Design the sequence.
């Protein structure tokens, strides 16, 4: 059974119909590359999956946790879904280690010692163990984003949502973040990535999802779709990126 | 001319100043606690506490402190409650202070970037946990300078309570002025007293304002 199931999802912002009936099943361990023009609804789709946006119609299910329109109790769901943002959003008043430890202690009620062990393990994974005591404003953008990944991983999510996580980075810092994501993918983490890195989408993605005007316009194997897009809109989009 | 010495005047004024300080501290501490409650109501998800808090704030910011004191002092006696000028003064200034601090602090909370709310929400923190661990620590840093700055308004606000008969620095001054027929000298000393209380506070607030951006949170 699919790990993430999205059925007939509709979302409006006022009179703006942003998601017009999204159906998407994601298997455990799959890497989904979500692409499409700015304003096509990619971010909104990701944000509804962990309840940062409500929706009016449809259903979302993540690992057995159901999310219905206007749900407000999201604690169980959010422990299964991690999210990485374009702007990193590290907590500036906390050290790197404390950033990673916070939710494990507050939400999962894990003790100080064990939380610290988890944080060190996760920071090691993203190659930043030596920054445990540093503060976010002492790190480069790429390092901050890797800490954000470690912070999400510490909660042991079943699926990780990534919304253009390299778009705010200087070009020379993009690869260190993508390398971490690649490792996660290789380890079997389920990933939904909104990205403009087409090469990455093709190489690492198991499935390409192209959004257009609030609908999934086309989806399938990344290699095939890139080589042979079925709709003029996708062909156009690929053309405009390259 | 009379048998009240300068030393008597100064001694009495110092006594009155102590009451001014006591009233200021009381209003500030109690008003701070109530202001915190207002802050939480003001940013609650539920619109009912939000509107109630907003109404409260508008009433207390939109009427003179003197009228608020009159309403409390004379209104309570109309209800058959005999409250002392001290209680009326403390209550009035506390309500006044809470309305302003609640609003100042709300501004500070709202200046914390939205991404901080989203990141902590996506880590499954509840609203209260987000406030406690992520938002308030950052808002607090921003809030210190304007809060200290507002404390000057509280100290000066205590002077108004002299009108309902609370004997603090200003009231002591009026009584001494009547007794000595030296109003200029006496009120000069009173003004000096307020300045001595307020100047360090406003200077400190300016110092914090200047340094908050340059300094680290840690
Ligand atoms: N918070 C919001 N309030 C109102 N409209 C929004 C909001 N967020 C997004 N939108 C609108 O929803 C549409 C889809 O936006 P978004 O999901 O951010 O697209 P994408 O991530 O694909 O660029 C756009 O028309 C955008 O203007
Ligand atoms: Mg977007």
Sequence:
């Amino acid at each position: 059974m699919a790990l993430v199931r999205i059925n007939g999802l509709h979302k409006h912002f006022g009179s703006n119909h942003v998601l017009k009936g999204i159906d998407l099943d994601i298997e455990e361990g799959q890497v989904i590359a979500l692409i499409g023009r700015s304003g096509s609804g990619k971010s909104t789709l990701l944000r509804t999956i962990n309840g940062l946006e409500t929706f009016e119609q449809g259903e979302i299910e993540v690992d057995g946790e159901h999310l219905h329109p206007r749900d407000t109790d999201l604690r169980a769901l959010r422990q299964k879904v991690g999210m990485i943002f374009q702007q990193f959003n590290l907590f500036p008043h906390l050290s790197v280690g404390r950033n990673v430890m916070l939710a494990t202690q507050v939400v999962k009620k894990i003790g100080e010692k064990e939380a610290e062990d988890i944080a060190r393990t996760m920071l090691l994974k993203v190659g930043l163990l030596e920054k445990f005591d540093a503060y976010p404003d002492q790190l480069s953008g790429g390092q901050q984003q890797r800490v954000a990944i470690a912070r999400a991983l510490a909660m042991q999510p079943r699926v990780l949502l990534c919304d253009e996580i390299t778009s705010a980075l200087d070009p020379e810092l993009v690869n260190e973040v993508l390398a971490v994501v690649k490792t996660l993918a290789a380890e079997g983490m389920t990933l939904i990535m909104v990205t403009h890195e087409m090469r990455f989408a093709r190489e690492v993605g198991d499935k390409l999802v192209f959004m257009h005007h609030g609908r999934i316009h086309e989806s399938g194997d990344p290699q095939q779709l890139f080589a042979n897009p079925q709709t003029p809109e996708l062909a156009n989009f690929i053309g405009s990126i390259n | 001319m009379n048998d009240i010495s300068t030393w008597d005047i100064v001694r009495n004024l110092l006594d009155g100043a102590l009451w001014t300080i006591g009233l200021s501290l009381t209003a500030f501490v109690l008003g701070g606690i109530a202001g915190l409650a207002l802050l939480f109501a003001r940013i609650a998800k539920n619109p009912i506490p939000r509107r109630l808090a907003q109404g409260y704030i508008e009433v207390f910011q939109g009427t003179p402190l003197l009228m608020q004191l009159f309403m409390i002092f004379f209104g309570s006696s109309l209800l058959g409650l005999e409250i002392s000028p001290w209680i009326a003064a403390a209550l009035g200034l506390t309500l006044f202070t809470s309305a302003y601090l609640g609003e100042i602090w709300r501004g500070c909370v709202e200046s914390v970037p939205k991404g901080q709310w989203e990141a902590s929400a996506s880590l499954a923190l509840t609203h209260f946990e987000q406030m406690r661990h992520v938002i308030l620590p950052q808002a607090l840093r921003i809030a210190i300078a304007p809060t200290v700055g507002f404390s000057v308004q509280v100290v000066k606000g205590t002077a108004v309570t002299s009108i309902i008969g609370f004997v603090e620095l200003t009231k002591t001054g009026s009584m001494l002025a009547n007794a000595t027929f030296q109003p200029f000298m006496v009120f000069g000393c009173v003004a000096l007293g307020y300045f001595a209380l307020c100047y360090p506070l406003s200077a400190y607030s300016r110092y914090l304002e200047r340094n908050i951006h340059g300094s680290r949170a840690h």
In short: The radius of gyration of chain A is 18 Å.
